[in-house]
Amino acid sequence: MLSSKEIASMSAVVASSLDVTLTVSRDTSKVFTAQVNVYRPTAPQLATYAGVIGTKEALMLRFMSATSDIKEGDTVTYRSENWEVQSVKAADSYTFASDALMTIIS
Hints:
By secondary structure, the chain is of the alpha+beta class. The protein has a single domain, classed as Bacteriophage SPP1 head-tail adaptor protein (Thrombin, subunit H, Beta Barrel). It is 23% helix and 41% strand. Strands 1-2-3-6-5-4 form a 6-stranded antiparallel beta barrel. The model has no long low-confidence stretch (mean pLDDT 86).
């Protein structure tokens, strides 16, 4: 089992790797910024979410769920375009970041 000191150290390493700041809005009433990584989905992720993605451009977000309140349905501004968060995969035990699929809003 990890000690609280080890967990804090690992959390700090993960947080320092998040290199993109995004604006996130929810129902136009809550707007905040979040530190994330943005990356391309893998082939299995594309296959899993094919019904959701359709013909839209899709990217993945990685964020610290302990410090960023990103939820399904949120709107994210990335590359001066609006994206909708489609699905959030919560962090598992001893995982410090969550992943989310986002699709461009056309």
